[in-house]
Specification:
CATH superfamily of the largest domain in chain A: Cytochrome-c3 Hydrogenase, chain B
Mean pLDDT of chain A: 90
Number of strands of chain A: 15
Distance between the termini of chain A: 35 Å
Largest sheet of chain A: 5 strands, mixed
Number of strands of chain B: 5
Oligomer: heterodimer
Strand content of chain B: 5-15%
Structural class of chain A: alpha+beta
Largest interface: A-B, 55 and 53 residues
Mean pLDDT of chain B: 88
Helix content of chain B: 25-40%
Structural class of chain B: alpha/beta
Order of helices and strands of chain B: HEHEEHEHEH
Chain lengths: ~525, ~160
């Protein structure tokens, strides 16, 4: 990273605040951002986008601040570009890095700032119908009754003209047990020409809600941003808090956190494989996936007290760590479940009808995936090796020698295969990790390391990052001088991946959408927050 | 194919028996003609997705809600009961009203999970109603964050008087 450092040092007006082995923070003017970002994006291998945060720091005399966190794969180096002193507008970066499109529109909605030159003038997070001047993430906004004033207003969609073009509006309430979102298909005959996905129906205002809360209260809410990636979000949050407090957790804690993360991946991937079958009406495949998932969730409940693994990971450690007997029992159960998985998975993989629906359906081109900063199995199915467990040394993953599992075709079948292979790998990791847990001495583990609030660095930006089953979840966190949350930004994997879904539709037929959608298997809640 | 058949024989019946042996504590509030079969429409109103997944889990082979006469339907017009999850996100309130209006009478509403009952952890958020009873007339409540599939089945059998 020397050349990057030299470039930044020689750049007029850039101040290097921190430059360590793995992390750098530099401050610059927002007008220099496009040029510096363009330079960074030219570096090979190309950096990936972790998060983009706008923060109202006017009380600290810094105006509005924009934080852009990039990660340079191969070197495991993360660079935070900080543009401070923004008053009303900042130049858009979406034109050089389309991954930031949504994030900038969100900043326009929630902070009332203007992203100059942004190609899409529509609001994103706040649907039309909110009162004028409602920018809830500004610090001077006090919770009022705006929601009662929210009135229905028509959503804005592009028009499309031509012979035989028609629109199919679907949602926000769907026919099934799924979350709400509005999809508008522009079709000509059977093939889809264009898809508009209008999300953010489940927006609740969580990022505002956690402000001013204690670290513990914050965790309770962050774990409920997403039901099925609860552990990943909680873990990323705890990592951020521990970084701020300079707390190192012990090896048993790292071991069990890794086990939990792999348990979450296993139950999600297996459930998602089953759901893909539901997307094509393949009931037997779905039945097998859902019963396997249920058994894994029951294992979660039995050993960790929660079917979605909530409340197990806490800042500074773990609430509980199972003993060696439990580890043995867990391992035996997992071996059986892994055998069961191998028994039913050929049913899908060798099923001609299912293959024919999934192969070449919903292709995500690698260049689109790179431009949009797609993460997780969706990116890996398009040949992009960006598994955060490989890119970044955290938990016990360096010892497990994780390598990204990739497929090249980018279709629904590839996304299925990435999940199948990752599930096998998760079972293998769990086997290794539980054997260590079993054979190691009884851990003398009482309680988590307490976070000394006096030692937590106030107003210091930090992030925690975890590879969830859907991709890299990023929690960006800043605490105030009392150790309360000043700003917490949740960039879930779903938030990064949703913009890519509409690009995979054109050329496919409308009935393929359930399969394509389920092959991405994105959440709405952690995207909408 | 042979392997699958052998596996099925080896595995036997997955669906658990016993849940339905409980006797409802209170008499059913539903008219007699609704006690044998209940058609449900799910309405996500800003939940974190956990309650929704637990409702989906009711359909797996271990719970198999259909053998109790309970089914999830695609349209509110076919539904007797609306199972709502989430605290009532502001941008969904209109859709929730429309869904409720589309249901034929008699109809009932169930608030599933703590945040549907009183806002749960999302109480006080600027775009959350703080409970589904502020949006729709709620008849039944199932607490939990999220309620387990067992809790849900018991609640449903309870209101059916089974």
């Amino acid at each position: 990273m020397l050349s990057l450092r030299e470039y930044l040092q020689s750049y007029q007006g850039i101040e290097i605040i921190i430059w360590e082995n793995k992390e750098g923070i530099v401050e610059l003017s927002s007008s220099d951002l496009p040029e510096v970002l363009s330079y960074c994006l030219e570096i090979k291998p190309r950096p990936i986008w972790l998060t983009h945060v706008v923060n109202d720091e006017r009380q600290l005399g810094r105006g509005f601040c924009l934080y852009l966190v990039l990660h340079f794969p191969g070197k495991d180096f993360s660079l935070t570009l900080v543009a401070k002193g923004i008053k009303e507008e900042f130049p858009t970066l979406a034109l050089i890095f389309p991954a930031l499109n949504w994030s900038e529109r969100e900043a326009q909605d929630l902070f009332g700032l203007h992203a100059v030159g942004h190609p899409d003038p529509r609001s994103l997070v706040l649907h039309p119908g909110w009162p004028q001047g409602f920018h809830p993430l500004r610090k001077d906004y006090k919770a009022g009754d705006e929601r009662k004033a929210f009135d229905r207003a028509p959503l804005v969609f592009p028009e499309m003209h031509g012979d035989g073009i028609f629109q199919v509006p679907v949602g926000p309430i769907h026919a099934g047990i799924i979350e709400p979102g509005h999809f508008r298909f522009y079709a000509i005959g059977e093939p889809v020409l264009h898809l508009e996905a209008q999300l953010f129906y489940t927006h609740k205002g969580i990022e505002k809600l956690v402000e001013g809360r204690s670290i513990e209260d914050g965790l309770r809410i962050i774990e409920r941003v997403c039901g099925v990636c609860a552990l990943s979000h909680g873990l990323a949050y705890c990592e951020a808090v521990e970084k701020l407090a300079n707390v190192e957790v012990s090896r048993p804690v790292l071991l069990w956190r890794t086990i939990l993360a792999e348990l979450e991946r296993a139950y999600n991937h297996i459930g998602d494989i089953g759901n893909m079958c539901a997307g094509v009406g393949f009931a037997l495949g779905n039945a097998n996936g859902s019963q396997s998932k249920e058994k894994l969730q029951r294992l979660n409940l039995e050993f960790f007290g929660h079917r979605f693994l909530r409340g197990v990971v806490v800042p500074g450690g773990m609430k509980l760590i199972p003993g060696s007997k439990d580890s043995q029992a867990m391992l035996n159960r997992l071996i059986k479940l892994s055998d069961d998985f191998e028994a039913w998975i050929p049913l899908l993989l060798e099923h001609d009808g299912f293959r024919q629906r999934a192969v070449t359906t919903g292709v995500l081109k690698p260049e689109n995936a790179i431009d949009l900063g797609v993460t997780g199995p969706a990116a890996r199915a398009s040949g992009i090796a960006n598994d955060w467990r490989e890119l970044h040394a955290y938990l016990l993953y360096p010892e497990l020698k994780v390598t990204s599992i990739i497929e090249q075709d980018g279709d629904a079948w590839s996304r299925l295969m990435v999940r199948v292979k990752e599930t096998r790998e998760s079972f293998r990791f769990l086997n290794t990790l539980l054997r260590e847990a079993m054979q190691g001495p009884e851990f003398n583990y009482d309680k988590p390391v307490s976070i000394a609030l006096g030692k937590v660095r106030p107003f210091s930006p930090t992030w925690g990052c975890v590879e969830s089953p859907r991709g890299t979840d990023v929690i960006w966190l800043m605490l105030d001088e009392q150790g309360k949350i000043y700003r917490c930004r949740v960039r879930s994997a779903s938030y990064a991946n949703w913009p890519a879904v509409p690009l995979t539709l054109p050329g496919n037929i409308v009935p393929d959408f359930p399969l394509i959608n389920k092959s991405f298997e994105l959440c709405y809640s952690c995207c909408d927050r | 194919m042979l392997n699958l058949l052998l596996r099925k024989l080896h595995m036997g019946r997955l669906t658990e028996q016993g849940i339905n042996s409980q006797i409802a504590q209170i008499p059913s509030a539903l008219p007699a003609s609704f006690r044998q079969s209940l058609q449900i429409r799910h309405l996500a109103c800003g939940s974190c997705n956990a309650c929704d997944w637990e409702m989906t889990a009711l359909g797996n082979s271990l719970y198999d809600h259909q053998h109790f006469g309970i089914d999830f339907v695609a349209s509110p017009r076919h539904a007797d009961l609306l199972m709502c999850t989430g605290p009532g996100a502001t941008q969904l309130v209109n859709a929730a009203h429309e869904t409720y209006e589309a249901m034929a009478n008699p109809k009932w509403v169930m608030a599933v999970g703590d945040c549907a009952i009183n806002g749960g952890v999302f109480k006080g958020a600027y775009a959350s109603s703080g409970g589904m009873d502020r949006v729709l007339p709620v008849d039944f409540k199932v607490p939990g964050c999220p309620p387990s599939p067992d809790d849900l089945i018991k609640a449903l059998l309870g209101i059916m008087g089974k």
